[in-house]
Please model this.
Amino acid sequence: MANATEKRVYNFSPGPAMLPVSVLQRARDEMLSLPGVGASVMEISHRSQAFLDIIEAAEANLRKLLGISDNYAVLFLQGGSRLQFSMVPMNLYAGKKSADYVVTGSWGKQAAGEAKKVGAVHTAYTAADTNFDRVPAEGEIDFDPDAAYVHYCCNETIQGVQFNGEPTPPEGVPLVCDASSDFLHRKVDVENYGLIYACAQKNAGPAGVTLVVIRKDLAELSSDDLPIYMNYKWHASENSLGNTPPTFAIYINKLVTDWLLDEVGGLDAMYEQNKKKALMLYDVLDASPDFYKGHAQVESRSVMNVTFNLPSDELTKAFIAEAEKHDLTELKGHRSVGGVRASIYNAMPVEGVEALRDFMKDFRDKHAN
Ligand code: PMP
Model:
């Protein structure tokens, strides 16, 4: 049976993904009683002072890490990013005829599909012709100046393609970003966005809480006719406490953001580490192009999800099975891309990536002709 002293594997899962060990240890230590409370975070009212202190600290940490100004509300919602696929169009069309979607992978495509149930969608860009291996150059996006908003996914988790900077919509058109799989991996200029959303289970905590950063004037657009849970204005006016929020997930998010601030030293330091980790794996791909074929075009490579194929299905299966024996787990690629996907989010230690890099080299040396 697993216990606190059992060895942990390096888990390359796309999500839910690894959490920092010190966060898990602290949660373990406080599991039976939060300091001074005599009960766990799961057993107290979301309106108790002890929980209000936690959610306020979680919000303050996010504001500090990302430099989020008072012009924005920070919401702690449920329903995952998929609910945001619907909430974004339900709240933000606000009388406009159409919204722009930039589609660089499976998640952007699904977000556009959900928006079509609410209003007209204009595909401002798609990389479908090359099985989503790239992000657009700035001039390639066909923006509609009258769009309600521009939606894009800054890191496509399945394909492993990532924007290195955000698109610039026409003046007055808000930018909406699905940042589910790279939220908090580096600093972004929040002022460039109307709304950023991210499910927590990659970089920000466990599944159950979804973070939404929304410009306050956009939250005001929500119609009172919307079902109440779908209404951003309501969540903002209730400080995410309108219904019982996912208290445990918010508590872990607070511990993760404490870790980013106090142990990692902020998002610039985190980004340096993330780039270093990704480069270690991409260097192996670049050194062995006949054996490991990266899915993403070089300029669009993700720092979070490294996707590649091997010369055959047999070798892919052998790679994944042998990696497991080295305690390198959850490396199977998504069926739409195939091959291998190594998700190396914030909490994946450098040593885990070093172990995978060394394994990749050994495997190649054994099996390449
Ligand atoms: N967007 C992206 C980029 C994702 O990676 C995911 C989950 N893998 C989702 C949306 C959907 O998130 P959820 O399962 O929380 O609804």
Q: What stands out?
A: The longest strand covers residues 120-126. Residues 15, 80-82, 107, 153, 157, 178, 180-181, 199 surround 4'-deoxy-4'-aminopyridoxal-5'-phosphate (CB under 6 Å). The chain has a mean pLDDT of 97.
